[in-house]
Amino acid sequence: MNTVDLLRDVAAEHPTVDAFVDSAGRRLSYWGWDRAADGIAAGLGDHGVTGGDVVCLLLPSSLEYMVCYQALMRLGAITSGVNQRLGPDEVGHIMARARPRATVVDDGDGRELPAAAGLELRWSELAPYWDAPRPALPAVGVGRPVLICWTGGTTGRPKGAVFDHDNLAAVAELTGVLSAPFDRRLSPVPFAHVGTMTRAWDEIGKVITTVITPPRWTAADALRLIENERVTVAQGVPTQWELMLREPALETTDLSSLRLAATGGARVPPDLLRRMRAALGVPVVNRYAATETGGVISGSRPGDPDEVVVETVGRAAPGVELRVVGGDGSPVEGGVLGRVQVRSKAVMRAYWRDEEATAAALDPDGWVTVGDVGRLDAEGNLTLAGREGECYLRGGYNVYPVEVERVLADHDGVAEAAVVGVPDPVLGQIGVAYVVPAGSVDADDLRRRVGRRLADYKVPDRVILLEEMPLTAVGKIDRRALTELAMAPPAGAVG
User: Across the chain, how many H-helices and E-strands are there?
Assistant: First the structure.
């Protein structure tokens, strides 16, 4: 069994169920998805795409994206999604590494593609094949690569994590409470993200309807779709949830279809958790994932106490092994900080065309090092201290930003907080805290607050107030942009 066979079976058994619904109300049934994928496979084949080829999709999150993805599976080709929000340097790096046979581009995308993009195929060249007869298709090997999913590049250049059909089947086994048969699930991040690309088997096998938010996400659109499409599982990073809770339309939005709300990608402030539960009336779970793990590591469970949801990223998902290791690679316990490692059937096979990076991240026993630092408590809950590259050294002492951010976010007047380290001629590095206020806040008061709860060297040297945080292409706080701001503080900085 592979993902293609699975879709054919589900399309035959549940032909009229929506596979996808977009923000404009366009719908694609499971039968329609199966049929269109055959047609577009014919079109891609006519343009020279064959088994083993890499094809980049530079398309918005859309029905067309998912039809192309499934069509490429049928040809035995490898899909490499490219987030449309990435800049030219990032796109150029990905394509130079992927070496695609072709790149499928949205007609409204006016950028000039790099030479490494291969054959440029505008969607309008493939669209006429939507209803074309099924071509002769090769047998699909379950152990061959099916997709390349690119890391966020938060600790360097993006790397391409490779997955096959067996990986996708494993992800479906590990998603836990996020997936139930016939769910209608809101998709708030770009389809090129691991949160969609590795979920194909999960969504098809459980006959889930994916409700697609617009390319430019807004809280008003998300709430409208939850009500109109009777969404059962609403997802978003904490910033998106904060914006939804502030959206005036929330008061009149019918949320009665929801069974679960999920968040992840950043720490959940306690006040945000309380307000989410009160406004939504359903359990809220906090999930932790990494591209290399297929998007599954750990999470809180419905019914977990608040401190587990806000202070930790929960316990390992069933079927996932989770540990932290010291500098010598040996597991450490008793709340000692170490590098986070994960092992499961969903873990990537390798980094695409990068043997050195693969050897550094994936050991012979199948443990992958995901680049985070954390500690495990006696119940197996993981508390993250930050990315390995985010720790800064102030006067000879290590400071993990997440620890400081947790204290800042506990303040009722703080909506969001992020801390970065920047060079200093005396101390080596100093901490700069960025805060988005939710009410009245005072920089000196925030610094004293940290000093009362943490070591003095962890107190931010500066506090800068922002109207909103800069975000990456997948909606996470852009720490690189904050570091650049800290290196050249804007007028009005306080602290």
Answer: 16, 25
